[in-house]
Amino acid sequence: MLTLQVETRKEKGKSFSRRLRINNKFPGILYGVDKTEILLILDHNSVFNLQKKVEFYTENFFLLIKDIKYKVKVQAIQRHSFKSKLLHIDFLYVS
């Protein structure tokens, strides 16, 4: 099963997201029914390489946040219109 290590973030908004993308990172979110949402910072290159695998979209995998594993699936991905860049990703909790 795939595992992806991510960081949490406190800030949100357009200017913060731009600063992340300049540093080869991008924002994401983890949410679910009756769960608190967690704002994430993801490394672009590691996620970009993982998203080339079919399992990234079809199977559940783990997000590792501060040594805690969360079982998730990909809910939505936003991509740049003509560059091969990821802009934002939504993960959904899996029980």
UniProtKB/TrEMBL annotation:
Domain of life from the UniProt record: Bacteria
Membrane-crossing residue ranges in chain numbering: none
Function, in words: This is one of the proteins that binds to the 5S RNA in the ribosome where it forms part of the central protuberance.
Classification lineage: Bacteria, Pseudomonadati, Pseudomonadota, Gammaproteobacteria, Enterobacterales
BP term (GO), one: translation
Cross-referenced NCBIfam families: PRK05943.1
Protein name: Large ribosomal subunit protein bL25
Entry-linked InterPro entries: Rbsml_bL25/Gln-tRNA_synth_N, Ribosomal_bL25/Gln-tRNA_synth, Ribosomal_bL25_short, Ribosomal_L25_dom, Ribosomal_uL5_bac-type
GO molecular function, one term: 5S rRNA binding
Keyword Transferase on entry: no
Keywords tagged on the record: Ribonucleoprotein, Ribosomal protein, RNA-binding, rRNA-binding
Record's GO cellular component terms: cytosolic large ribosomal subunit
Cited HAMAP family: Ribosomal_bL25
Subunit record text: Part of the 50S ribosomal subunit; part of the 5S rRNA/L5/L18/L25 subcomplex. Contacts the 5S rRNA. Binds to the 5S rRNA independently of L5 and L18.
Residue span(s) of domain Large ribosomal subunit protein bL25 L25: 4-91
Native organism: Buchnera aphidicola (Acyrthosiphon lactucae)
Assigned protein family: Belongs to the bacterial ribosomal protein bL25 family.
Pfam families: Ribosomal_L25p
